[in-house]
Amino acid sequence: MRLCLGSPASASPLYPTSAAPIEAHLYEAGPEITTVGAGISVWPRTWDVMRRLGLYEELAAQSVQTPVQDGGIGEFRPGFLFRKSDSNREGFAFAQVMIPHGSTTMHRADMVSVLVKHLPASCSVHTSKRLTHYTESSSRRSDGGAIAYTLHFSDGTSAETDVLIGADGIKSKTRAAMYQFAHERECLVQGRGSVSTEACERCRRATPKWTGTVGYRYLIPSERMREVNPEHTALKINAPLSHIITYPISHGKFLNWIGFVTIPGGEGTVYPKKWVIDATQDEVINHFSGWEPEVGQMTQLVEKPTLWAIHVMENLPFSVTGTTALMGDAVHAMTTHFGAGGGQAIEDAYILGRLLADSRTNLARVPEVMRIYQAVRLPFAQRVVNDARKAGLMYEFNWPGLYDGSRPEGISEEEALELEKEQLSVLERAIQDLWKWQWMEHFEDQWEEAERRYEQLVGGRPGQMGKAMRCIIA
């Protein structure tokens, strides 16, 4: 089996073990394997996968806060600390999300480095290969096997594969081609004439949606923060602050800082600029002027921020066709409010990898394997996408029926403060409940469901191995 892939972060968990004859090729758009963004949070479900992969100790060594090794529920510690800072008086903490063993954070590059080091020898890496599209093929290769797909790259080269896994991010070219083929094959033949994919009720959901929110990002050197205020809250805790969010990475050397700004009425509209651009410190200061002094101390250190327009993939109707599958941001890009996007991609890769690597998986069985992967992973990941949106609205005091920052008329200052405390307490419980999936719903259950479905497929019998398969992650 020939397999093509396109993300080193997804490729390592994709092949925990491989008894099947798989020739894997990973195509990286850049000149070297790297990552986008700075900080990443690693929560209990992801640590479960890392233990299964045998990568726990190496990854734990890169974390600012060393996770607990037993993998159980354990002691609940602060995962997130929420501080009300949107006035010029001193802010105050109003909520904590308590999570088993607390939060663990690290630099994304450190995680990718660990994963890349464990890419199997059967996986060939090709850099400077930016995918433009793929085409379906009915031709045959030299050994007599059918060529399922031909990949086309921006440098004019191409590659052939039996199985294609698109781990190419929110602007996925794999997804675009997959939905174009599906639209032509399924939608247009159903009497929809010349309706484009963008106008098709089903296929238009393959287009990323702007959330109406932008994020200013910057890495603040921790030593500079200590020079400004050695007692700053951001230096004392190992949990993020919302809705400016900040947390330590690179063993505490930097504070990963993101300032979120939501544009009223922006959600669902077309973002008018490039999705990632350089911004100025003055923009950041202006957006957060009037906030508490500790916020001002941080924004004075945000010297060269970048501005990111936050887009999501919302309720994609399918993530596999034939022997092609999408994973990670290509299928369920989400807001950052759970810090779960990377973890969900790793869960995708582990389940699909275990199924493909089983010695009973031959090329004839791959389409069914893909459908098992979709049935187990797609609904769950989509729920995380939708709940992350809800969490972000709660963080910004903008979820219907919960605290919204307003003050009723005709009550005293003392009464207003008491009412605010009560409402914030209700909000704290709602946020805590929304986070419980991270430890109450176990990744092991998803794998067992995938395994059960797979055993039903193969009937406990070995498959006919036939020719080796070639696979590509693009």
Question: What's this model, at a glance?
Answer:
This protein is α/β, with parallel strands linked by helices.
Describe the structure.
This protein is of the alpha/beta class and 474 residues long. 35% of the residues lie in helices and 23% in strands. The protein is built from 15 helices and 19 strands. It has helices spanning 8-14, 44-53, 56-60, 108-117, 173-187, 222-228, 233-236, 281-287, 293-299, 329-332, 341-357, 366-395, 413-435, 437-440, 443-458, and strands at residues 2-5, 22-27, 39-42, 76-84, 92-100, 104-107, 123-126, 131-136, 149-153, 158-161, 163-166, 209-221, 244-249, 254-262, 276-278, 306-312, 320-321, 324-326, 469-473. Strands 1, 2, 7, 11, 17, 18 and 19 form a seven-stranded mixed beta sheet that branches. A five-stranded antiparallel beta sheet has the order 13-14-12-16-15. A three-stranded antiparallel beta sheet has the order 8-9-10. A hairpin with a 4-residue loop joins strand 9 (149-153) and strand 10. Helix 1 crosses helix 4 (108-117), helix 11 runs antiparallel to helix 12 and helix 12 (366-395) packs antiparallel against helix 15. The radius of gyration is 24 Å and the shape is globular.
